[in-house]
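Input sequence (401 aa), recorded before submission:
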Amino acid sequence: MPIDVESKLLIVDDLPENLLALQALIRGPARPVFQAASAEQALALMLEHEFALAILDVQMPGMNGFELAELMRGTERTRHIPIIFVSAAGREMNYAFKGYESGAVDFLQKPLDPHVVASKVNVFVDLHRHRKALKHEMEALAAAHREQAALVEKLQVVQSDLERAVRMRDDFMSMVSHELRTPLNTLYLETQVRKLHLGKGNLALFAAEKLPAMIERDQRQIQNMVRLIDDLLDVSRLRSGSLSIRPKPVDLAALTRRVVESLVNQAEAAGSTLDVEASQTIDGVWDEFRIEQVLTNLITNALRYGRGSPVAVAVTRSGDHAVMTVRDQGIGIAPEDHGRIFEQFERTDDSRKHAAGLGLGLYITREIVRAHGGEIMLESAPGEGALFRVTLPLHAPPDDA
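Predicted structure, token format:
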């Protein structure tokens, strides 16, 4: 048992010479001895200290040793302190029996035998140290158990996160495979049909007047695949913080007219029309390619979900900001989905029914707008179409990506 475990001893006697003599017998390393000349002083000391042993004189004025022992046994803090009674009375008074009834663990008769006293005190000191060591070990075991439980909980959280990540990865790969397979299957079927006609010598399908439509169909499927791949690459760049933003002076109105013109054929294929309001010159400092990407994503979305209704595109200036709006009259978006659709791989249930896609376009759009110091807002309700509003500062320098 390590000697550094402190064991405090209490001796109680109304005679100072008895206290000094008893202290000389029991003192030792890591054994501070506290003296009390009355039961009241002893109780005060027991409220302040934890004692390994109390040696009480039986015959004291006022409250005697037995009465003090009974008070100790009635208090939670002191009831477990071992008690040794000391008395000079003769054995015929049967004090020993009364002492045991009061809760004593031992009884000593005066005059005291030094070897007997030292031996008994050593026993109780050793017991106290064993109890302290055991308590320390139990506390250490409890702490280790708590740490182990916390570690298990953390591992369960990590495992849950890993399982969720694996599910997300599997879902993502399944979604990417499905979306890429759609244009690939279309191209494959087209080539199979052409091969079949060539094998039968049917060259009418390849007449000069039919080739432009054939090429256009092929280009549309290839463009779909390219867009999917570009979206994936942009998401990867955004995650790594390497999406490049290269600002330069741009006329946003001219850029908007150019983007709308490039999407006219796509609008016709969707049975829709594009109305543009961008007559006023709006000069600012932006990344032209990225802002074109924002406009293309928003207009393409409007054509996808607009149910063939006209799509209105407008660009205006408001103070030191440019404002772009894209409005459709399509299926609309429920209010609870307004925030979610700007996250990665998120789409509404209605949008899945009307068009394919990875659910990345609006996420990329939002991040590009934020990189320019701007913001994007949505106003929409189911069945009432959607209005996307992009606000860009004219001259705020974008963060370097």
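Checked by second reader. The chain is about 50% helix and 15% strand.
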